[in-house]
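Task card 7
Instruction: Convert sequence to structure tokens.
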Amino acid sequence: MSETEFGELLRAVRLRSLLTLEGLAEVSGVSVRAISDMERGKSLPRQGTLAELMAALGLDESERADLLRASMRRDTGVPRQLPPDPAVFGAREAEMKAALALTDDASAGGRHAVVAAISGMAGAGKTALAVHWAHRVADRFPDGQLYVNLRGFEKSGRPVDAGAALGGFLRALGARAKQIPRGTEERAALFREQVVDRRLLVVLDNALDYEHARPLLPASAGCLTIVTSRSRLSALSATDGAALIGLDVWSREEALAALAARIGADRCRAEAVAAAEIVDLCGCLPLAIAVVGARLAAEPQASLRRAVREWEEVRPRLDVFVSDAHPGDVRAVLCGSYRTLPDATARFFRALALHPAPTMSAEAAASLAGVGMPQALRHLRELTSGSLLSRDGEGLYVLHDLVRAYAAERAESEGDDLLCAEIRLLDYLCHNARSANRYVSWPPSSAAGTPAPAPGVVRLEFGDREEALNWFRREEATERAVLRRTADRRLSGHLVALTREWASYHSLARP
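Output:
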């Protein structure tokens, strides 16, 4: 049967059920537009959509079999390239709501193609969101779905060339080999010509950057393109009006729900404290939770508490997130991001592993790495753009715990001088506290006999008491973390000096 025959059959059983299009949409949860497209022979349903329609229509076994057979007869000239829908997907309600609104824009057939760019750190679930979204709305793009993994951030190997990806798309759309030109620009032009008046869904997964993705964008109204990348594709917003969707890690509640979906809600409730410790150990990163969830699901009788205790002792820490039960590997995906960094930015990134607090200032980061502020700001922009760092509401930089663990592994393997970096951070906190104390303590502390800070330490000048106090407040979490975590006896003199220089501020801040 063809799409037309399926549509006629669907319309016939709907009318026998005495349902209008709107009535069937209401009881099935399938949109009026999607049902109308099916009945007019414009599209065939996915399995999930068909199941919802058959349940709403109350069909007998014979009618269900006829409708199922009709739905499975597809035009072989229409590409259906989407990978399988994720078996476990959740905790992205806000993002899915925005995604479905964009789909409405695309399927409404406006004046231009619709582009969405999903960005976020490695393992945040960008591909899962893109593929799940695509499956949810595939019925609304009857001319097919194209998918390519561009491999922009693979641990090894080169990204897929845009020209090669275009060649695959053109073949999927029916072009013969002799019709496909050699050059990327010529292929892009032919692709745009081929998709004119077609309603296509295109998924460009794991793009390296803007230049990697842009040649693959269809230009026709009625097309939806979903791009995923660890890079923030802001330029796509400027040139193509792309909607930018940023993915953060899950909240603790979302992470617990995802863990429960993998190992069972009863198991999580029975050991609620241990379940919470597991998601904390994972840093609420979706990939990490998927890996440990697969490990635990493979051992349904294992104690969660015992697993936590064992994993807390694992060194290197990222070894926890490797399992035969799941193909994901947190270390491997982070390596894919790291290998794209210029050498100087990679060195800067490794130094950040030594920062002990959840957030860091640009000045503290520059001091750790021993570089000037202009260079530090450039490196911070590159790391933030590549989703290896993020920024909080106060403008401070945030390094995810598992990214920090990876940076520490790389720093050790590269033989970086970690002691000198620690000294620079201590000097930054100590010498700038001494400068700030000119406005905070009385009498001001004396610098007599105090050695100069190490080369590469950022030295600040404060204009008044408020500036000095603001600096203390901003760096207080770092100072406390340094005192709590620095155990190297060679740094004991620095720690004594740090405690002395911060004493006045702490006496003021104490209630």
